[in-house]
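FIELD: query
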Amino acid sequence: MNHGYEASLVKRVVNQLVASIVNGEYKDNVLPPQVILSKKHGVSRTIMREALSVLISRRMLDVRPKTGTRIRPASEWLIIDAEVAEWRLRALPEPDCMRRLIHFRSLVDPPAAELAATRANRHQRIGINAAFQRLVHASPSEDLQSQAEDALLTTIIDASGDEILRQMGSVVRVGLRAIKASLRVQPHALARVSESQLSDYGRVVRAIDTADGGGARLAMSQVLGRASMWVEEPV
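FIELD: result
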């Protein structure tokens, strides 16, 4: 069979399955066996397996022994693919791409910090403070500092309680690592977390701890402003 024809069949079946899922056509959120689905959609089991694999990779379906193929809650569906973002950065991590990533990050981290300030529970606030202390006391090693910074930002985004921001945040983390990798090859640049950035992060954490949403957003925006200045500096 022609590969292009097979691909179009898979795409058609994926769209049909998605339509049935969003319309709530599957009882108890469980799909019928593949043999039944194949007959219903008029395709081979090979095509059906490929179509189901697409939806599994998008976190729309979950396959488990004895329970069959279940539909996952819509809040868990993959909206943004961090892997694709990482491949894009590997291919062309040029300054313009870095600037776009910082702009994208500005759509995620400041609102996440604001939401965390108003939504985080006591346990999450303790976790954010602990993550910040790990960053403060992290070894000057760039890798260790980057891991601590990633952990702090991830903890803040998780505390926002926003699934879309959480998925966007995974792309942000990829972008942050790419920015730091780019800065390392520029002799004038600082790839490590600077004292001024630590101070800004401290303001973010304190604002979250006191439920100051506006202050948390502003302080996080200042963190991003410093990253933007590093990228804009001439080599």
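FIELD: remark
Strands lie at 61-64, 68-71.
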